[in-house]
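User: Predict structure, ligand adenosine-5'-triphosphate.
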Amino acid sequence: MFRHHDGLGRPVESRAVAERVGVLGGTFDPVHVGHIVVAADSRHALALDRVLFVVAGDPWQKRGQVIASPADRVALVRAAVEPVDGLEVSTVEIDRGGPSVTADTLEALARPDRELFLLLGADAAANMPTWRRLEETRELCTLVIVTRAGEPAPAPGPDWDVRHVTIPRLDISSRDLRDRLRTGRPIDGLVPPAVVHEIRRRRLYTPTDRDGDR
Ligand code: ATP
Ligand code: MG
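Assistant: Predicted complex:
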């Protein structure tokens, strides 16, 4: 309960309205417009106050694949979300260090007056059975499965509190973007202009920078 004042300045008790926070975890190596659409459409569909892009520090299921540093990936996400209302970057996983485990992240973001919505693309949702601390994850959030039009939505167990959001099919992946950059093809339109600029400025994903994708 929060204390408020009525129109006459008298204190009144009213039920606290929980802040609704979306959590979009990812490697974001690099962030692209598919990620922005997932976040913005989910925010709209579920009336979320804001959506946090939680940048993975050490995505244990992608060992050996991540090629930009956490600081670079955070800078790219920051550039991507800055112009969009209600979208923010969170470094909670990077700051904590160690493997990125969703339940740990949700615990770190939990507050008494905050409701957490875990946003997952269909591919990420299909991968859930392999997650660590799955039971705890279920207790901590409402699951939001974001499917691309025409794609089947994976069904988590019956115990999960689930919402579904459908977005346009955007066949864009970070892996394809890394391939494009390595081979000198354009990425314009697939990532926000500010991200194109940051990638160039930081000389990321080019063969001269690293040996390229493994
Ligand atoms: P990679 O190609 O390296 O696997 P990615 O493009 O899939 O990268 P991730 O950082 O792995 O990006 O994804 C973060 C989240 O965004 C996941 O929940 C994933 O399902 C979702 N996602 C990624 N790309 C899209 C897309 N084009 N449309 C909808 N959701 C997406
Ligand atoms: Mg992926």
